[in-house]
Design goal:
By secondary structure, the protein is of the alpha/beta class. It is built from 3 helices and 19 strands. It has a single domain, classed as Hexapeptide repeat proteins (UDP N-Acetylglucosamine Acyltransferase, domain 1), CATH 2.160.10.10. The protein has a 7-stranded mixed beta sheet. The protein has a 5-stranded parallel beta sheet with strand order 1-4-7-12-15, covered by helices on one side. A 5-stranded parallel beta sheet has the order 3-6-9-14-17, with no helix packed on it.
Length: 183
């Protein structure tokens, strides 16, 4: 039976010196981000861009959203990230156009390799396609793609890719039905 090598884990280098400096700078930027008034979406877009995020037009990120490393974040036009949503962007997180990330949702682009006793950091990307909706309190795990037009139901736990225009829910998330758009 394998035993975790915690000493080697803690001695491991997870971030370059440049990344550490960026994290410190974002620590200050994040304070300004959270202290802004609720409707100051333009100010928060500016702060995110200043710290390397690629933010589209008319993106609304609420002030209580938690974004770990904005330089790993891309959000397309007309998308929104709700109150208390968590974007754990240790690895790349890509959110398409017209996407809603609801309150308390969690997009997680970081984990550890549990097969290695040192449990090294793994930065696996998360992608959410255009016109998708990640509902309240849902979790989207590392390495997952949520297809265009898909809906991840409230409190769902997604650990595998979600096909486009599919509604999933539960823990672990399972297909509920195909999504159809009414015109």
């Amino acid at each position: 039976m394998m035993q975790a090598d915690i000493e080697r884990n803690r001695a491991g280098v997870r971030y370059s010196r440049g990344e550490m400096l960026r994290r410190v700078a974002w620590g200050i930027g994040a304070i300004l981000f959270r202290m802004s008034f609720r409707t100051m979406f333009g100010w928060r877009r500016f702060l995110l861009r200043l710290h390397g995020a690629r933010i589209g037009r008319q993106v609304n990120v609420y002030r209580t959203a938690q974004i770990e490393q904005p330089w790993n974040l891309a959000i397309g036009d007309w998308s929104a990230v709700g109150d208390e949503a968590r974007i754990y962007s240790l690895g790349p997180v890509s959110i398409g156009q017209r996407v809603t990330i609801s309150q308390y949702a969690h997009l997680c682009a970081g984990t550890h390799d549990y097969t290695d006793p040192a449990l090294p950091l793994v930065r696996a990307p998360v992608m959410v396609g255009d016109d998708a909706w990640v509902c309240a309190d849902a979790f989207v795990g590392p390495g997952v793609t949520v297809g265009a037009g898909a809906v991840v139901g409230a409190r769902a736990v997604v650990v595998h890719d979600v096909d486009p225009w599919t509604v999933v829910g539960g823990n672990p998330a399972r297909i509920i039905k195909k999504r159809e758009m009414r015109h």
